[in-house]
Amino acid sequence: GKTGIFDLWSNDFFNYHEQRHARHFYLFSILAMIRKSIILCLILFIVYELFLRVSDIHWDTSQNDKAENIISAQDFIFNYSAKEISEDTVILGTSVSRKLITDSLGKHFINLGFNAWSSYDGLELVKMSKKKPACLMIEMNYVKSQILQPEIVNNLKPVSYYSGKIFRSLHLSNQPVGLIVGWGKNLMKDRIVELKEKKREDVALYESNLKVNRQIMNEAVPDSVLDKRFVKLKSLIDGFKKENVSILFFEVPISKELENTASMLAVRRFFNKYFPGNEYQYIPQPVENHYVYSDGVHLSLGSALDYTLDLKKELNKLGTARKIY
Question: Which candidate among 87, 101, 183, 210 keeps its CA 20 to 30 Å from the CA of 217?
């Protein structure tokens, strides 16, 4: 009887140790796999980082309007030194300013026109980056609600900022999916332009967009709200002015049918109230509004170039030619 009990106990003991050994082996196998995965990820990360540093990726890698905004903000934060910015003119505004063909103005121009955001976001970005440009060109078309976009704040937090300065692969513009999509869009660029032009030829669609924009722009924002927005705007702009940053205001042309809508008239009135012409410089509007618009508000590709060249002429007249190279 004792021998049987001993044999049973002995078998249980060896089974326990076999199971324990098997668990340890399984655990070590998992840890080894994790280590190999981490090493492989690091190798791929380094290879991709090196690829980005030696390659010349010139196409647009954004996948939507918000991504386009973040890429522009990151480009300003990470790819321009304070010294470079000190010689540049920074354009601040909305999607109507984004349509400008910035390269045609000269190499010392940076466009921070944001889709669905506003010049307020651009002003805050420049201020928070602690970079002082030679000149700020501020679009007058829209003065929207002044809630600073979290994407701007997040990119300037210490962890995001310093990691973004070191590693290009962390920039949204350099994400693999965006690069592939951008490469495809670049290949089809002519076709995309052709489709946009064809869409503009649809008179019924254009009239429908124009009608919608007219209704929106005839809903004037209350003066009390505009006062609050302009007080904040003036505080930001005068802060730059005290640091000897040149300030230029400009209004991007829009369709004649929308030029004198309630919102446009109100915004012009408040700009004149808070930024009088005898203290601030305004770029004159083109004498002839001969431009073509995709929806009444945004310039078509061809007209965007025409207006950009007209704007450059006005800048030269104002004596800012020293900033155009």
Answer: 101
